[in-house]
């Protein structure tokens, strides 16, 4: 789930950037660094592709946990896929908004945030 290739410094920078809280639900508990665009899909270890999530949102972002509010099709793979897509979009928007406010256009695939 979490790539060991992210340096300690980068992890720290991500936690700090996101205020030591989950970017999606604001929880300060069980924080983990998540790749917004999966590495298999061309995502990098650039901060523009990394986000701080609590363990629950992180598991949901990977479709490991499907929250009840999201089981439109009985919790099958369609739900899982739409959940993963939804979280990917929410995370992308969070990071893009953050960098946009600093006048930087974030690009999770080729890098470009700081
Ligand atoms: Zn969360
Ligand atoms: Zn992850």
Question: How would you explain this protein's 3D organization?
Answer:
The chain has one domain (8-100). The protein is globular, with a radius of gyration of 14 Å. The model has no long low-confidence stretch (mean pLDDT 90). It has a two-stranded antiparallel sheet with strand order 1-2. The protein has 114 residues and is mostly helical. It is built from three helices and two strands. The longest helix is centred in the last third of the chain and has 24 residues, at 77-100. It has helices spanning 8-17, 55-61, 77-100; strands spanning 31-35, 50-54. One zinc ion (ZN) binds next to strand 2 and helix 2.
Helix content class = 25-40%
- What characterizes the major β-sheet? 2 strands, antiparallel
In what order do the strands lie side by side in the largest sheet? 1-2
Mean pLDDT rating: 90
Task: Quickly count the helices.
Answer: 3
User: How far is the N terminus from the C terminus?
Assistant: 23 Å
Listing every helix as H and every strand as E from the N terminus to the C terminus, the arrangement reads HEEHH
Global shape: globular
What's this model, at a glance?
With 114 residues, the protein is mainly alpha-helical. It has helices at residues 8-17, 55-61, 77-100, and strands at 31-35, 50-54.
Topology:
Blueprint: H1 8-17, E1 31-35, E2 50-54, H2 55-61, H3 77-100
Antiparallel strand pairs: 1-2
Characteristic terms for this protein:
9% strand, 2 strands, mainly alpha, globular, 3 helices, binds zinc ion
